[in-house]
Amino acid sequence: MKTIKLVFQEFLNEQQAQLKPRTYRGYEEAISLFEDCLDGYGWNSLNQEEADLYDELYDEGKEFCEIFGPDKITSSEIGEFLDYFMIRKVAASNTLMETVGRVIRKFVRWMGEKGYMDSECYEGAAMAVDELKGDLAKVTELSALIFDYIRESPDVDFEEIEDGYFSVVAIKPGELWVEGYIGQTGLIGPVIVSEEISSICKEGWVISLMLGKVGESWRMIESGFVYQR
């Protein structure tokens, strides 16, 4: 069986033969980050028999990508990489975010062409990449904009405070309406923001926030990361 690590190396070898060195370095970095993500979190999707094998070989010094084959790369793993690991675990620039999205899309297509993914898995993985890769840089930019907006906002007294993950359900210039992502709260809004923030934000995105109510509107008090779903 060809392991994920060997498949990664095969992909990189082919790209290195076709790309300029500077472009190839971006591919190498993107694949390295994906490997780190799988080594760190891929074991979560294993069944009991696979988990026992993983524990045994991990104790011998092997990582997830050195144990399992490319069948363990599905839309779930890609989604976790693009919409969690890259956002929360990697302090990436917009340029790196764009590179990673582009490289992973090409890698998935290559996997399908090589037969490392069956047609059903390929379709799901390609859909996940297409859904997430285009806005990777934008969610990073939005996180920074929200942080700066909060830092520059004047201190006020709040009548009520809500804290958690909020899904954006409606947007108007300078205003957002949100609701608890996992059912903590109902509709909250309008949340006053800059027009730059509202122009970048998209319905369905999830933002980690502390919100305070002032009169009939809400203000952002603290923020964390922005996720596409």
Automatic annotation (TrEMBL):
Matches recorded under InterPro entries: Integrase_recombinase_N (IPR010998)
Record protein name field: Core-binding (CB) domain-containing protein
UniProtKB keywords: DNA-binding
Organism listed in the record: Candidatus Methanocrinis natronophilus
